[in-house]
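Q: Could you predict the 3D structure of Transporter?
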Amino acid sequence: MFFSVLAPLAPVILCIGLGFAIARVGWVRASAIPDLSNIVFLVLTPALLFRTMGGVRLQELDFTPVALYFGAAGLLFVATLMLGGLTTATAARALAHMFSNTVMIGVPFVGLVFGPQGLVTLFTLISLHALVLLTAATLVFELLQAREQRAAQQQQEGGAPHSMARTVGQAVRNSIVHPVPLPILAGLLFAQTGLALPGPVDRALQVMGAALGPMALLLVGISLAYTRIGRHWRGALRIAVAKGLVMPALLFAMARLLGLSGQGIAVMFTAAALPVGANVLLFTQRYGVMQDEVSSAIAISTALALFTLPLVLLAAHYLAG
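A: Sure. Here are the predicted structure tokens for Transporter:
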């Protein structure tokens, strides 16, 4: 059973390793990473998301696993703030503890392990992941930044605090009008019409969707090859451990406490163990805190996942019943 459960992890490791190797020998330069990312996020990802959700009826979706995921994420976020202090730096660390790389690593990995039905559950999470977590994080960041600005007001003059309503509005808009949630919502709306995609269009989307997994994993390896950890490795390692081990452990405990099981719970447990998502780095850049540490944490958590995901798969197999 051990090898049958871990078998889907082999192509993930091989693709990431191959991407790392071709970058190290110079076949792919660092300057090409943004262009490759555009292909993955703007072309291949929307194709897979739209085609998959285009055959799903709303009444077939189960939001219980997603609610469990957000419950675990919220608890970990609040616990980090309480233990680390109410600062924007702690908020950035708390966001890194709970925000998963659900697309670039999650989609190919869950697809290999759980198949199309598992992807439907993951896409249900993805459709709400950024909207819920980033909007909530925006509120926290803005409140803490305003608090810090008031405390520093006597020492230096600074710019006016951001308009919270405007910032939250931008977060909501950017979380929906985005190459990940938008095709999910469009696919769901199309599915409710009962129409079918024309054959050539459906086949084109199928080919592009099939290319997403290997392309995304190769890109992960290429990015790792050009990432420099630097002197922030200790803090980054703590974030990686919290994201890859504490977050899934918390979700697992909540699932057992509530008596929840099944494939949907197993998919959420796996999603909770994924590495830190890149959106966290965008937040740190926006608020000017923890940029180097979070950037290093993304790289370390991705490398650490190659060792922790085998354990996660075994536990997920138990949760799936």
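Q: Anything worth pointing out?
A: Residues 2-152+160-319 form a domain with the Na+/H+ antiporter like fold fold (CATH 1.20.1530.20).
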